[in-house]
Every structure is written in structure tokens, then in C-alpha cells.
Backbone:
């Protein structure tokens, strides 16, 4: 029995209708030839059983195949877990997925402080405002003792120090042709003293950190709950600094300028450019800068003098840049600001 109006029926519905009619006609024909309904049901059940048996056989085969590959898969999983990033870090992806900034964070000027105490600094400790504390690191031993030769001797004398940078930490060859910390400390002396560019690396070797931290301390004005990270960064070089970027880190940051002069340029996020101003300022030896590098786009430039740049306490990194020195530490607040 066909539908009354074929123009109102889709091709798929029409095929389904015709197929249903064929089954009805076939069923009627078998009954007329003496077959019983119970026989037809039994025939359908046996067909389903055969198909079910085939499916179970395939499932058992696949399960056995996977089980036989277990030793190989175990090795693959362990290697994958040992890789820091299965997909490499990509600044384009980070930028595309970062949350929109609250433009209230950048509607302020750079704040300069002198002879600040912990109590004086308390209102600014966890703010997003760029802050420069003058001469706060001026008398640290690191200001006079940290240089290219200090770190070369330290890493050469510490077993596993180079490997820890490559396997557990990070080396960044900003705009240079040096691709490992070994390359940096194997440079000819004339290049070590004159080569432009910044060579940042992080330190997470326990013995290296223990030695380094004898030469600097947490700034006296930071909150008592400020924690020292297990990783310090060092930046070494001059002239060419970091390109304009955000830092994709989880904490606030401070940097201590130990030698040389470093110029910072800050830009607000694109969504805040019509509201917030840009800033350019220079820090001198002994200054400490506090900056939320997760919110401010920033680049740097070092004048024609080598500088050892920054220890972060993240409020935890340490940068060295080579006739000048910056020590950058960051601290982690117990409570982040909500506004």
C-alpha cells in the first residue's frame, strides 16, 4: 500500500515504506505455504545468534591482540610521561587562548619607592602596578660576585648541573646562536666579554641553587608569606633583550638589577590599548622591579654594557645579563587580589 501523495514523502521515507511492504508480502507468502510464525521467529533467533557469535569472536581477538602488545605499550606510556610537553609550547596558542584582561589593572603609572619597609610596601604587595624599589639590592654579595666566570666555574664544578638545565629546567637562546648552557660557557673569552644578546636559563639543580642563594636574599620589604621557588633564572648578555611578550607563569615576579642598566617597555593587552598607557623606564644597579608579567606585554633592552639581570622569587627566577647583572626573584602570595 503506497502513500496517498508521493509528492509529500521524502525519498528515504518512500524506500522505508516500500521495504516494509515487501516484508509484509513475504511474511504473508510464507504463511500461505504452510510455515508457522513460531518457525519464522526461530529462524530469526538463530541468525541473530550466529551474528552474535561472530562479534564475540572478533572482540576476543582484539582483546588478545592488545594484551600481546602490553610490553610495547608500557614502554610507550612511560616515555610519554617522561616528556615535559607532548605538544611543544606555542606562543600563538597561548595568546589565542588567554583570558581577556581586566583593564583596571593597567590604569596606573609606574610607582617608584625609596627606603621602603615591609609595612610601607604592604598596600602594593599583590597589586598589578609596576613598581621600582630603588637600591633595595645594592648591598647584596651577588651584586659584586656574580659574573660570567662565577657561573662557569660553578657549573663546571657541579656534577650534573648542565644536564639538569637541559632535562629539568630551561635554556632560552634569545636571538643568539647558542643552543645550550655548555655553548655559553665554552665561548672564547673575547666573545664572552663582547657578545651581544641575552642567554637566559633556569636553575633547578639543588647544589647550584644552594651555592647561588648564599649571595642574595628575599628582599626585606616583601611579605613574610612570600615563598622562594625551587627554580631561579639567570639572564646574561647585553644590547639585545627579550622581545615583546607575556610570561605564561602562575605567580607574581620581582627582579633585582645587580649590574648595568636595563630599559623596560610595557604595553597593555590589545583589549586595553584605548584605556591604558604604555610605559618606558630604566632600572639601575641595585634596583628591584616588581611587575605582573602575565598582564603587561614587555620587552627589554640593555645598553652597551654587560649586565647580570634577575633573580625571580615567583615573588622566583634569576636572570643574569654579563657586565651587568640582574637578579630576579618572584613571590607567591597566599591570596591573590580579586579586583
Residues:
Amino acid at each position: 500500500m503506497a502513500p496517498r501523495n508521493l509528492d509529500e514523502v521524502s525519498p528515504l521515507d518512500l524506500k522505508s515504506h516500500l521495504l516494509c511492504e515487501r516484508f509484509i508480502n513475504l511474511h504473508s507468502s510464507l504463511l500461505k505455504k504452510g510455515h508457522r510464525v513460531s518457525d519464522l521467529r526461530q529462524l530469526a533467533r538463530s541468525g541473530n545468534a550466529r551474528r552474535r557469535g561472530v562479534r564475540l569472536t572478533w572482540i576476543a581477538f582484539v582483546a588478545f591482540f592488545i594484551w600481546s602488545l602490553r610490553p610495547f605499550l608500557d614502554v610507550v606510556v612511560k616515555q610519554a610521561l617522561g616528556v615535559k610537553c607532548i605538544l611543544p609550547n606555542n606562543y600563538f596558542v597561548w595568546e589565542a587562548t588567554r583570558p581577556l584582561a581586566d583593564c583596571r589593572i593597567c590604569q596606573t603609572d609606574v610607582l617608584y619607592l625609596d627606603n621602603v619597609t615591609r609595612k610601607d610596601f604592604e598596600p602594593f604587595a599583590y597589586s598589578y602596578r609596576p613598581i621600582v624599589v630603588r637600591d633595595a639590592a645594592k648591598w647584596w654579595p651577588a651584586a659584586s660576585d656574580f659574573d660570567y666566570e662565577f657561573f662557569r666555574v660553578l657549573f663546571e664544578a657541579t656534577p650534573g648541573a648542565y644536564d639538569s638545565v637541559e632535562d629539568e629546567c630551561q635554556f632560552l637562546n634569545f636571538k643568539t646562536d647558542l643552543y645550550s648552557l655548555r655553548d655559553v660557557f665554552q665561548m672564547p673569552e673575547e666573545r664572552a666579554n663582547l657578545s651581544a644578546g641575552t642567554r637566559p636559563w633556569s636553575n633547578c639543580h639543588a647544589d647550584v641553587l644552594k651555592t647561588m642563594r648564599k649571595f642574595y636574599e628575599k628582599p626585606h620589604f616583601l611579605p613574610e608569606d612570600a615563598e622562594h621557588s625551587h627554580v631561579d633564572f639567570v639572564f646574561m648578555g647585553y644590547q639585545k633583550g627579550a622581545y615583546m611578550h607575556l610570561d605564561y607563569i602562575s605567580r607574581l615576579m620581582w627582579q633585582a638589577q645587580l649590574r648595568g642598566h636595563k630599559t623596560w617597555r610595557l604595553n597593555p593587552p590589545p583589549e586595553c590599548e584605548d584605556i591604558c598607557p604604555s610605559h618606558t623606564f630604566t632600572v639601575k644597579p641595585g634596583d628591584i622591579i616588581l611587575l605582573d608579567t602575565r598582564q603587561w606585554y614587555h620587552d627589554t633592552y640593555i645598553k652597551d654594557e654587560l649586565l647580570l639581570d634577575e633573580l625571580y622569587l615567583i615573588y622566583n627566577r634569576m636572570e643574569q645579563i654579563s657586565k651587568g647583572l640582574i637578579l630576579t626573584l618572584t613571590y607567591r602570595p597566599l591570596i591573590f587580589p580579586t579586583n
Q: What stands out?
A: Residues 81-88, 312-339 have pLDDT under 50 and may be disordered. The domain at 96-329 is CATH 2.60.120.650 (Jelly Rolls). The longest strand covers residues 297-308.
